[in-house]
Fold this sequence. Notes:
- Belongs to the ABC transporter superfamily.
- One of its GO terms (molecular function) is ATP hydrolysis activity.
- This is ABC transporter domain-containing protein.
- By secondary structure, the protein is an alpha/beta fold.
- The protein contains 8 helices and 8 strands.
- It has helices spanning about 40-50, 50-60, 85-90, 105-115, 120-135, 135-140, 150-165, 180-195, and strands at about 1-10, 15-25, 30, 65-75, 75-80, 90-95, 170, 200-205.
- The strands form 2 sheets. The protein has a 4-stranded antiparallel beta sheet, with helices on one face.
- It is globular.
Amino acid sequence: xxxxxxxxxxxxxxxxxxxxNMRCKKGVVTGAFGANSAGKSTLMYxxxxxxxxxxxxxxxxxxxxxxxxxxxxxxxxxxxxxKPSERARKGIILCPERRRIFPxxxxxxxxxxxxxxxxxxxxxxxxxxxxxxFPPLKGLKGREGGFLSGGEQQMLAIGRxxxxxxxxxxxxxxxLGLSPLIETILARAIKDINKETGITILITE
Length: 205
């Protein structure tokens, strides 16, 4: 489903990603592990295409130059220069590091925002599934995201990503900063999502 060959990303003269090769098979959970500042988030930004938006903003403000080399093939298509919005429409959805929910919006509103690519029927069905896989969220629908615990926010972030109907779900350090108990709950949920939906998952830690 996803094949990465000789991927390199430079921030000015600093190497953020150095010659990465990776293959993610359809319907399988694949892990990429590394120390802090190893380039895991940059890898996810590059696969999702967000790196192109960052690059454009840096060019507009005269900031650091960002260079991306190598190839990323998704379902047989070379997507290295594809816009992030087009990648999202093709099912590549990123759940970023540190949750990045909308803190002043309710949990329900966060989920609805995630469903912008879905039909009404798809959104309804997926939301029901999100509440099944993450039962605590159902009772917290009206609570603002900023008032949720770290574990609840991570459940919400993953749920929001599911609302976008991913074929390839990118989970960037979803267990970061959580208690061992919540880590176990989320790890089990991620496994269940893959098993029950067949969504291909790439996870970094």
